[in-house]
Design goal:
The complex is a heterodimer. Chain A is built from 15 helices and 3 strands. Chain A is an all-alpha fold. Chain A has a single domain, classed as Cytochrome c oxidase-like, subunit I domain (Cytochrome C Oxidase, Chain A, Up-down Bundle), CATH 1.20.210. Chain A has a 3-stranded antiparallel beta sheet with strand order 1-2-3, with no helix packed on it. Chain A is globular. Chain B starts with 12 loop residues before the first helix and ends with a helix. Chain B is built from 7 helices and 12 strands. By secondary structure, chain B is of the alpha+beta class. The longest helix of chain B has 34 residues. In chain B, helix 6 crosses helix 7. In chain B, strands 3-2-1-5-8 form a 5-stranded mixed beta sheet, with helices on one face. In chain B, strands 4-10-9-6-7 form a 5-stranded mixed beta sheet. Chain B has a two-stranded antiparallel ribbon with strand order 11-12. The chains are: A mainly alpha, B alpha+beta. Chains A and B meet through helix 3, helix 8, helix 9, helix 10 and helix 11 of A and helix 1, helix 2, strand 7 and strand 9 of B.
Chain lengths: 546, 315
């Protein structure tokens, strides 16, 4: 990478060249790139598992993979995608890279903790790879007891240790962001001048800090029951299987918001920039992010409506789930309203962002359907739920991730990517995604349960369509790897601000120098001061650009 | 000939109600999606860069818009919430049923026990038009009992009874599936619900070669496990009489009250002398956890249930 930017003024990529300068770096930008490498690796492992699953399901008899292998594949797909891609995806890469830049800081508050977080992440990844190589685990990513503690014959403990260690990486990242956003904002960067991406990362960091320790406890208890036979979750030992589900979802529901909140913030950046107008209802958007973060802690038992919880608690949790939909609805309406009277261009980041809004809305509305108690009785644990959360997680978070990656690519690398190819990839992603997951709504309502390696032949048409979509999606996700890689060497040089955006991150050179800014910027303006009528904008340092 | 299936069959009273709710929700989903996608497309075309649309008087924030669509969507959501919650209570709080059947799940099969003592595996015969209440438990891990055509589902947990009901409205054979991942052959933990006309069902019951009802088998076990030594009306031990216990209100030693349902009877047998036994008796009841299997427990509970019925009949 050193040769690519050799002729540029010295920047964070060219400042030092040794391998040690990367592995021992305390620069948030380099650590972000390290995280990029790690999560990209795991994204393709998880994607490989998904590919095998979809290939296997083309045939209703399910005779491509052995049942035990199939069960290990969907478990690996879930664990990898949830903890090794979706949760760290936006915060550890774009959050790491851009939070200090966006608030005008030289680095995160705790650079060593930041680096330590990456090492812990990789350590947990090694545990997971070990688990995979010695034969995998077949509990599903949810580790439901007493199956996981007493009956599963896979390698539950290495997988649990992997997720346990991974959680601490998450906690360290969250802690770093909370302190950084509280303490290191540049002069004039008041809370109500923070870009929405910063708000989103702040919200998600709070959730990470509060929820992840519960996951650690839960996994420790699983290990204690499995190793020592102490009755915690297994009724034959005097335990309670529902206790596990409560503890697991107390973490894992907020974890869903850990995955989607950063995407929401990111998309707000993209839509305002490419609609060239201020975001509609800035304070409403910021409060909605915080409201989602808070309410997300009070909805966990909606995963348990058919599990045998009391009718009263089911009614309460259903109601809370409807409440959490309200701030999400505000966000969707405000994104849409942000297009009103804009001056819109459809560059790749905007295509991804608009795709996000559409797919997130579908995912959110079907989420209300599964939150409705009586409907959930029918669709719970079927492909309907699978389709619903993939619309949020893949249609939402992954789209936003790619949108952000394209948007900030020039800043991170100093190169422009080929716009035409990027637009093609964005559109193919949207189409392939819908072809993959829309049939799964129908399958689910028909009664196709999740985690089945074989299924009634009636359902085959929908499964084949879904697998066809998945192969399109695989191409769409590989394309950026190719053309973004190409642009590293042959892409045209990007100026400091190719999108004419207002954030502080665009005030420094591309790629930024090692300590981000030559002089700490003074913030004089709220974010998103775009004027659609004449194309001018006011950057956050108060400078006016015609 | 069925071409590509698009909507599952509905074959129970509850299926039709749940479908109504689903269709109501789908309608709302389509309206909102139409609104959001419509606006995105209209704005995207009208306000694309270079278009001559008027961009003066930019609205940056208007609370009345935000409050308007928030209140509007919340109201629509709350209607759906109340509708769905109401139906959930109806489904999961079973009314007095015409027929009670015990179901025991284990890796990877479903065992059913009819009140008359008939047993079947991976099949469940039920009469048309009668409300059937299931009492489900598991011998190992968590399973889930799902009949798509009835739109009913309930997890089946080890260590306790779960209950729900359905009322078939069509004869035929309907798929039964396990929807909670339970190990290697989870995908093949299925079965068939056979709905028969009532006369045919009555005939089916008689040809199963069973001579003793579940309660009668339970009575034999009641003596075998030594329960009768204390709980027999003639016993000298100060133990509560079980006649009329089922369905009555019990004051517990921990000060609470409960209704003596199947779950309570089962817990008392397994836990023995504990804080959940009725107040006013010495703590001498032995715990039977680990000694009585699910099949025998069902029979014992059925026997205690039958004691209440005979008492009611004699009143």
């Amino acid at each position: 990478m050193t040769t690519l930017t050799a002729d540029l003024p010295t920047n964070y990529l060219t400042k030092e060249h040794t391998i040690a300068s990367w592995l021992l770096t305390k620069d948030h930008k380099r650590i972000a790139l390290l995280f990029f490498a790690s999560i990209t690796f795991f994204f393709f492992i998880g994607g490989f598992a998904a590919t095998l699953i979809r290939l296997h399901l083309v045939n209703p008899a399910g005779n491509l993979l052995q049942p035990d292998i199939y069960n290990r594949m969907f478990t690996m797909h879930g664990i990898v995608m949830v903890w090794f891609f979706l949760i760290p995806s936006i915060p550890t890469t774009m959050g790491n890279f851009f939070i200090p830049l966006m608030i005008g800081a030289r680095d995160l508050a705790f650079p060593r903790i930041n680096l330590g977080s990456w090492y812990l992440f990789n350590l947990s990844g090694l545990f997971l790879l070990y688990c995979l190589f010695v034969g995998g685990v077949d509990t599903g990513w949810t580790f439901y007891t007493p199956y996981s503690t007493l009956f599963a014959n896979g390698h539950v403990i290495p997988a649990a240790v992997a997720v346990f260690v991974n959680g601490f990486s998450s906690i360290m990242t969250g802690l770093n962001f909370v302190v950084t956003i509280h303490r290191l904002r540049a002069p004039g960067m008041t809370w109500m001048r923070l870009p929405l991406f910063v708000w989103a990362i702040y919200a998600v960091s709070v959730v990470m800090l509060l929820a992840t320790p519960v996951l650690a406890m839960t996994l420790a208890l699983i290990a204690i029951e499995r190793w020592m036979g102490v009755g915690i979750f297994d009724p034959s030992l005097g335990g309670d299987p529902l206790l596990f589900q409560h503890m697991f979802w107390f973490y894992s529901h907020p974890a869903v918001y850990i995955m989607i909140l950063p995407a929401m913030g990111l998309v707000s950046e993209l839509i305002t920039c490419f609609a060239r107008r201020p975001v509609f209802g800035y304070s409403g958007m910021a409060y909605a992010l915080m409201a989602i973060a808070v309410i997300s802690f009070f909805v966990w038992a909606h995963h348990m409506f058919v599990a045998g919880i009391s009718i009263f608690s089911a009614v309460v949790f259903s109601l809370m789930t409807f409440f959490v939909a309200v701030p999400s609805a505000i966000k969707v309406f405000n994104w849409t309203a942000t297009l009103h009277k804009g001056s819109i261009t459809f560059d790749a980041p905007m295509l991804y962002a608009l795709g996000f809004v559409g797919l997130f809305t579908i995912g959110g509305l079907t989420g209300l359907m599964v939150a409705t108690l009586a409907v959930d009785i029918h669709v719970h644990d079927t492909y309907f739920v699978i389709a619903h959360f993939h619309y949020i997680m893949v249609g939402g978070t992954v789209s936003a991730f790619f949108g952000g990656l394209h948007y900030w690519w020039p800043k991170m690398t100093g190169r422009l990517y080929p716009e035409m190819w990027a637009r093609v990839a964005a559109i193919v992603t949207f189409l392939g995604f819908n072809l993959t997951f829309f049939p799964q709504f129908i399958l689910g309502y028909l009664g196709m349960p999740r985690r089945y390696y074989a299924y009634p032949p009636d359902f085959q048409v929908w499964h084949v369509l879904s697998s066809a979509g998945a192969s399109i999606l695989a191409v769409a996700y590989t394309l950026p790897l190719l053309y973004l890689g190409w642009s590293l060497i042959w892409g045209p040089r990007a100026g400091p601000n190719p999108w004419r955006a207002t954030g502080l991150e665009w005030l420094t050179s591309s790629p930024p120098p090692q300590h981000n800014f030559a002089r700490t910027p003074i913030v004089k303006a709220p974010p998103y001061q775009y004027n659609p009528a004449d194309g001018s904008y006011v950057a956050q340092d108060g400078s006016v650009h015609a | 000939m069925q071409w590509v299936p698009f909507w599952p069959r509905d074959a129970s009273v509850t299926a039709q109600s749940i479908d109504m709710l689903t269709i109501g929700e789908l309608a709302l989903v389509v309206v909102i999606l139409g609104f959001v996608f419509g606006l995105m497309i209209v704005f995207g075309l009208r306000y694309r860069r270079g278009s001559s649309a008027d961009r003066s008087h930019l609205v940056e924030k208007t609370w009345h818009w935000e409050i308007g669509w928030t209140v509007g969507s919340l109201a629509a959501f709350l209607v759906l919430f109340v509708w769905g919650a109401n139906m959930y209570v109806w489904l999961y709080e079973p009314p007095p049923a015409d027929l009670e059947i015990y179901v025991v799940a284990k890796q990877w099969m479903w065992k059913a026990e009819h009140p008359g003592g008939q047993r079947e595996i991976n099949e469940l015969h039920v009469p048309l038009g009668k409300s059937v209440r299931l009492l489900l438990t598991s011998e190992d891990v968590v399973h889930s009992f799902f009949v798509p055509a009835f739109r009913v589902k309930h997890d089946v947990l080890p260590g306790q009874y779960e209950t729900f009901w359905f009322k078939p409205t069509e004869t035929g054979r309907f798929l039964l599936e396990c929807t909670q991942y339970c190990g290697t052959q989870h995908a093949h933990m299925g079965g068939v619900i056979v709905v028969m006309p009532q006369t045919e069902y009555a005939r089916w019951l008689t040809i199963q070669g069973v001579h003793q009802s579940l309660a009668q088998q339970g009575e034999a076990l009641f003596r075998k496990y030594g329960c009768s030594g204390c709980h027999d009306p003639n016993s000298t031990v100060h133990a509560p009489s079980l006649a009329g216990l089922y369905g009555s209100i019990v004051h517990l030693q921990n000060g609470e009250t409960t209704i003596a349902d199947e779950r309570y009877l089962r817990d008392c047998i397994l836990l023995g002398a504990s804080r959940i036994l009725p107040a006013g008796y010495p703590p001498v009841m032995p715990a039977f956890a680990g000694q009585i299997g699910e099949d025998d427990l069902i029979k014992l509970v059925a026997y205690i249930q039958s004691l209440a019925q005979t008492q009611r009949a004699s009143r």
